[in-house]
Design brief:
434 Repressor (Amino-terminal Domain); 3 strands; Cro/C1-type_HTH; Helix-turn-helix transcriptional regulator; Lambda_DNA-bd_dom_sf
């Protein structure tokens, strides 16, 4: 899956794929395949790219495999520089959304009771 956030950020900065490739010490065809999503961008490469583009990693990071959240904390997870990235399966995410909706409804009912 094409890394649109990365591509847009690179273009806004006015950098070519060749310049990005040189910064990452690779040839332009390898960098191009990373932007197209054909080759995985490793965590150290995300850090180097973010540094060159002068943005936070979470502004450009994309992954098509699952839902990802970037937290700045001390929890355990996949280490990505000063951030941690957690993959949350869709079924768990949906379960949490339903639970949040239930809690919001209960809060609404309790507020109504307080008004009486």
């Amino acid at each position: 899956m094409e890394k649109t956030k990365l591509i847009e950020s690179r273009k806004r900065k006015g950098l070519s794929q060749q310049q990005m490739a040189e910064h990452l010490c690779m040839d332009v065809s390898n960098y191009n395949r990373r932007e197209k999503g054909q080759i995985k961008i490793h965590t150290n490469e995300w850090e180097k790219i973010a540094s060159l583009l002068e943005v936070a990693v979470e502004e450009i990071y994309e992954n098509e495999d699952a839902n990802f959240f970037v937290f700045r904390d001390n929890s355990k997870g996949t280490y990505l520089g000063t951030n941690h990235i957690y993959s949350i399966p869709d079924h768990l995410l949906e379960s949490q959304r339903k639970y949040i909706a239930k809690l919001e409804e209960e809060i609404k009912e309790l507020k109504e009771k307080l008004k009486l």
